[in-house]
Structures are given as structure tokens and as C-alpha cells.
Amino acid sequence: MKFRTLVSLLIAMGLLLSGPALMAQEETDDPVVPAPAEQTDQENSTPAEAPPLEDPAPIPEEPLIYDDYTVKGYAITVFGGQFSGAKYLENMDLPDRTILASGAGDIMGYDGEVLLVSQDPVHYTGAHKEIKEGPAYGARIGIYISDDFHMDLLGTYATGQAVTTMRFTSDPENFPDKSERIEVDKDDGYKMFKGGLALMYDATPATFFGIVPRLGFGLGGIINRYSELSDVTGLYLEGNFGLNFELFDNFQIAGQVDLTNFAYDVEELGYSNMVNFVTFSLGLTVYLDVVPPEVRASHMAEKNN
Predict the structure, then answer these.
(1) pLDDT digit string (tens) for 129-162?
(2) CA distances from 5 to 2, 8, 19, 151, 160 (A)
């Protein structure tokens, strides 16, 4: 009895002594959740903007040189001169005893009607139609794409007379060889308009006594206008030759010859005849330089070396 009581007392004392340790162990085994840290004023504040980046230092541009300029300058020319005219119908004289079908020998007048004299082949034959010479005026604008090459925009206006002549024999039976060419019709209101484009070359290596030869060719359109007849139009090809002499800086006197070739539609023939007009002109040219003086001076110095 005393022994059991002693054992019970010892167990109770052991439990009493080990209880706080067991409770501490249980508290240690539980996960520890840290308390949320208090946000500071700095964390609640809006983030400061980053300072702007500075622009990189500009790269210095290289100065322009002569070749950087597509157009080197402009040459404006105003001219006057003489227009040659041309013959666009030249029928042969009919031999004796020639028989023509009805209407075969009809020649149109400048009023649009058939000339009555052309229906009398016994006395009248060999009709010629031509444009007489007259004054010509115009202008050219040259666009220089290099030292010596330039594209010219040009326009020409000329006036003259359109004339029809025939060979007249007053007494074909007794004096068949006694004949003369007489005028049978005329239009004083003829006008020629021409405009186009030409590629020109200033042959500076061939300069003599300060005179610069110029060569070129061009194309464009031409209008032959009459008082009553419809306009006769066509496309032309042209050859150009000129001489330029510089009076002083950027101011020249220019002489030029233009040979214009085109197809002229002739009603009496039913097809076109090739016609050549020649224009002789003399004018004044002003050169407008678009290249800065220092750039041109540098270019000329380099060219002459």
C-alpha cells in the first residue's frame, strides 16, 4: 500500500515537471507567421520620374560639292530672226495630149474650194504650193545638267504667206513653149507655231576667239495655221547649230540655225510630203547660276588643274 502510494506520487511529480516543456514544444511546432511590416511613407509615394536623356551631339554635315547639284543653272534666251518657209506640193508640168480623169488635176484653194484654173489643164499645169519666208520670234529656256550639256524648252512663232502658182500658157496651139509661172491663189494669214525639247551641247573645247559652238537635236510638235483651212499639224525632228559669245558675266549674244523636218499632209496627193523649215535667229541669253559662288569656284579650279 505504501509502495503504490509512493509510485503514484512520483508519476504525478514527473508530469508536473514535464508539462511546461511539452507545451513549449507544441508552440514551437506551429508555423510562425510574421506580422506584416508597416509600409513606410517612401514605399507609398509615387516613384520619381527618370531624368530625360540628353540628345546626342549633332553630326556635322559635309559641305555640298558641285556634283551634289542636279541643276547647275538656267539659260533664258529671247530671239528673233527669219523663217525660210518651204514648198510642200510640186506637181510636174503635164505633157501634151495628157488625159486626166475627172478631178485628178484639181487643186484646192486656201478658201477650201477647188481652183477653177486647175480644171483647165490646157492652159494651166504644174501646180506648186509653198510657204513664203517671213519673220520668226521665240524663246528658249536651257536647263544645265552639267558644265556643257543642257535641255532646252523652246517655242517659235513665225508668219508668212501661203502661195499657189501654176504654169500658164496663153496660146498652147501656136506658142506651146511660151509660158510663165503665175500666182493663182494666196493666203496672207499663214502662221507657224512650234514647240518642243532639245538636247544641246556647248562645245567649249572648240572655243575660238571667245565664241562657243553649240550642237544639238530635238523633237516636238508643229502647227501650220491658215486663215480658213484647217490646221495642218505634225511631229518634227530638228537639228540645231549655234554660236554663243559672252559679252560679260552671265550675259551672251546667241546666234542659231534650226533645221526642222516633218511630214506635211497634202490633200491633193492623198499622202504626206517631207518638208524642211529653216529658222535663222539672233538673240540675247541670260545665265542664272544656282550653284553657290564658292562651290563653283572650287569646281572650276579643280577642273582647270
Answers:
(1) 999 999 999 999 999 999 999 999 999 999 999 9
(2) 5, 5, 21, 137, 161
Amino acid at 194: K
Give the Cα separation of 169 and 160 in Å (integer): 28
Cα distance between residue 44 and residue 180, in whole Å: 120
Model confidence pTM above 0.85 = no
Residues 87-113 pLDDT 10s: 999 998 876 666 666 666 799 999 999
Q: Which helix (H) or strand (E) holds 303?
A: helix 293-304
How far the first Cα of the chain sits from its last, in Å, is 141
Residues comprising the chain, all counted: 305
Q: Which residues, in sequence order, are bridge partners of residue 243?
A: 213, 255
Cell of residue 49, nine digits? 520620374
